[in-house]
Amino acid sequence: MNKELSTVLPVAPTRGRLRPLGLDEVRITGGFWAARRHVNATVSLDHCRDWMERVGWTGNFRAAVEGRIQHDRRGREFADSDVYKLLEAMSWETGGDVDPALTEAIAAAQEPDGYLNTAYGRPGQQPRYSDLAWGHELYCYGHLIQAGVAQARARGEGELTKIARRAADHVCALFDARGNQGVCGHPEIETALVELARLTGEQRYLDQAALFIDRRGRGTLGDGEFGRAYHQDDMPVRKATVLRGHAVRALYLAAGAVDVAVETGDEDLLAAVGRQWETAVARRTYLTGGMGSHHRDESFGDDFVLPPDRAYAETCAGVASVMLSWRLLLATGESRFADLAERTLFNVVATSPAEDGRSFFYSNTLHRRRRGTVPAADVQIPRAESSLRAPWFAVSCCPTNVARTLALLPGYLATTDDHGLQLHQYADAEITTGGIALRIRTDYPSDGRVSVRVARSPDHPWTLSLRVPAWAAGATAWLVDPDGGRREVTPGMAEVTRVFRPGDETVLELPVRPRWLGADPRVDAIRGTAAVQRGPLVYCAESVDLPHGHEVDAVRVDASAPPEERADGSVAVAGEISVPGDRPWPYPPYDAPPTAGDRTGIVLVPYHSWANRGPSTMRVWLPTVDSAP
Amino acid sequence: MNKELSTVLPVAPTRGRLRPLGLDEVRITGGFWAARRHVNATVSLDHCRDWMERVGWTGNFRAAVEGRIQHDRRGREFADSDVYKLLEAMSWETGGDVDPALTEAIAAAQEPDGYLNTAYGRPGQQPRYSDLAWGHELYCYGHLIQAGVAQARARGEGELTKIARRAADHVCALFDARGNQGVCGHPEIETALVELARLTGEQRYLDQAALFIDRRGRGTLGDGEFGRAYHQDDMPVRKATVLRGHAVRALYLAAGAVDVAVETGDEDLLAAVGRQWETAVARRTYLTGGMGSHHRDESFGDDFVLPPDRAYAETCAGVASVMLSWRLLLATGESRFADLAERTLFNVVATSPAEDGRSFFYSNTLHRRRRGTVPAADVQIPRAESSLRAPWFAVSCCPTNVARTLALLPGYLATTDDHGLQLHQYADAEITTGGIALRIRTDYPSDGRVSVRVARSPDHPWTLSLRVPAWAAGATAWLVDPDGGRREVTPGMAEVTRVFRPGDETVLELPVRPRWLGADPRVDAIRGTAAVQRGPLVYCAESVDLPHGHEVDAVRVDASAPPEERADGSVAVAGEISVPGDRPWPYPPYDAPPTAGDRTGIVLVPYHSWANRGPSTMRVWLPTVDSAP
Fold first, then answer.
1. Which of A490, A587, A621 is best to mutate for the B interface (most B CBs within 10 A)?
2. Which end of chain A is more exposed for a tag (fewer CB within 10 A), N or C?
3. Do B497 and B550 reside in the same domain of the chain?
4. In the listed set A509, A524, A556, which residue is the last one of a domain according to the structure?
5. Which residues of A touch B530 (CB under 8 A)?
6. Domain presence at residue A579
7. List of residues 6+ apart from A111 with CB closer than 8 A
């Protein structure tokens, strides 16, 4: 499908199987994501901005200019990056209209040679690049560059773009093939430099990104406290077979590697990342799409180490996973990447913000055993307590990452290629690109019916492709073409090819019904449990729905009885509630007799909605009544 | 039983139900612990000493004296404490004959007012007591005082004792009721000050310890990264109902609280700690006795959060748990405290050192999924990689803690009271106390027969009490008295009261046979598994014993067939070995079909012995053949 290329593209590969649509080409008009995007645009962006003023992270730039940074700097060494992420979010949301005063302060803090970081290099601070492993300087540039690209794409190059280019030039001058042979402990600049190369057409940015990818894995970052794999510095990117180490780092690096591979035509590198994705999804990913189980180092665990109650599943890793899957989808056209993106968007990204958009999960556990205390609205909390939504964190990467993801979400819905248009994610929306205009009407994921009506079409044949999600396997999905022809479709892409006329309606009917999922016996912590999924939504038991003040650990479910849908979107399952008492010495808690409970119905709610009704306990994988040892 | 009190006592309460024996009254003459104590005395003490020279921790004292500490200090802020722990170990092992040069260097580094710490207070260093939460200064005094007490008890007050008294006097002067109202982020000084009070009869040391116990739980340490419970500063000691937060901190604090409670006759405080112990053992303790599952903050998890593959179970927490149980046993006489101590000694403390005494586990996982790389003998490794035994760690608290525990181990075997003598732990040993001399002959825990022959006895009746371990419940234990009378005995204390004559032999026959343990269904990660225990020893599967290079995760066991003992101390069980392949999209790893495997015999070995035969995988809790979902 030829079309005038939109410029408002978060990711704009010059080649690959599919072409993205611009944010000006896709409008989400209602439903699940429209509601969340509205809260994001009207509440969360201001919330983030206010908090960063309050905790002094935006003020760092002014303090740097005024020569008092060594005394007045606030926040962690990477605090600049959150300011940049917010500016990126604002650019996508407002069409590039970002805070001029803040931009001016950032510009003023940039040094003549392009260096820009409020934590290093000034009198009384650590020297520039004195700690590549933990200093995050290149990481911060990465987010700065993404903000600059967003501004340029949204309304043409602006001040932020110029700052970003100066920083990128500085990096290329210092870290090129003859320069500093280091890499940043936290990947991010790789994907950003490729995007800047795509924006500007300047080869050296791409070359620099390729250098950073190739240099990684040679141990230059040292062993550190967590070992080389933490920084993905244990082996070259193209040799690794699975995602490992710090989850956000691993996923940003993989996204950057895909970008480099696509632009340089490096099929080996692309295949290597594809393999890593596949193994990580098969062995190291939660049912929610959450990645990275370890709290200690925020990292992937070994294969099948996926304990629900110790799921770190950082929100930022969810954002990064969607970024990676999107790049792999564009490069390959394989719908499994959109499948994982959907799972992660609905069950990680949508779970992080509270309904009011004023507090966020940093980590997304699948099982909470104790009722927590909801943090006060005006208190910044340490990352450690992140099993509760909090207004702000000492390390607050997640709120701004959610903000920019929701802002650019329309860009994830559809693509085009030479044959037509592909719908990957479903929302009530309008799409106008080239000669095609579509009206998509749906209550997805509450309802499985997706209607795609053509409003405008070229007068030659083209193909409308609709993703049939992998979760529909085992049930029946139907496609109704504009002539009323109804055929069963299976996971993958369902296609209708024809000369479309205005008014033509294609309908996809997806089997959005709750069903039990069994557990992989290799995941120890879920042996003998079952979980409910309905469409892309994972469900959970939450204590506020249990009788008599019970906690979720008292629940056992009968997975032989089918789950029943309820009008309010919740699901009822059969089961028992029983609370075993502590047994006496000798040596509890082993050799425990099973305790029979009272048969009762149990209500489950969508996982993303939990913890919006006060302190509660929650669990996704529920022990079955026949699971007693 | 009246006797001349021995002075060589690690813990010497002035009241309580039982009285400890001195290290000069108990000699371990053979078997399991004699072998380990021999390696400790002849290899591990020198190993620790050599490493601390090499990494500069002993050199810190000289650097402090020579005014170059601000440039030359090595190790973490608590490195002094490991030097003190080694000196304590040497004192118990050698009868107080500790390195005079090192002692002299420590004395020289002590400042005129008694302050002593190589990390703080000198020009170019952080000020004294500027960071009570993380600075570890009072913690270091705690270990210094324990070393000073050990020297005094082993051979009379020496230089180390004097240094310790000066430090304690300094603390009392500065932190008394009118002084600094803070507490140390890491408890340890509490138990040390009580022991110094017991040694010297000086009330103010006890008063200061009581103040530290009472001050804790008022939030003076701040929230920190991990919350107040990490430092046990979330609520007063006497109000807490369970051990929580950092495991070693929690257990040292509880030990100190018992000491204070015993000396001040504070029954409420004693009862509070007893409750905390009970709940922690019922809900937060591994089968091995290991405590503290969280890697991130080395802390107790919530109730029943005991994942085998993410068991931190720090060696030092095992040492601290034995310290606490010993104090509770002396205070109450209840054999369950000796039961837990036994479990922890055999399965945590004995597991840490390698057979050659030159490398140590820092954490004691119950399931290792990947073969690791054995660290080189000359490389200090970060704490993070502690699922492998390593020669030394950047944080190396565990090797010296094991060393001092093995050195004072004879002190844990027996006690006396007004009625007689109690045997709590079994080893081939000789005991001489007051008018009693006993010869204990046993191959425990390989064999369950314990013979206690009287070599000398007063000519009035007294009671010999032998602990029948809780693990014997469900099987039959027998006691054969000196007249040949044979009676069944149950867990608790089995007693023989009479006028003993030299040559009288009492025999305890414990049912040391392998048996299956079922899992508590509330511990998610072990649902559908079983484990083997034989006497006090927990067993495990280790990949080196599996055919065809299989890893342990391929094993499923048939827990309906009894485990069979083999001549070499290993155990054979029936089961299957099967390796499920990765399943295709959609969305592995859920909805997995069970995979049938080949029926085969599987060899299990004592847990403490694992990882002495090269890199391997290992697991304690083994999925059962009928556990597929």
1. A587
2. N
3. no
4. A509
5. 629
6. yes
7. A121
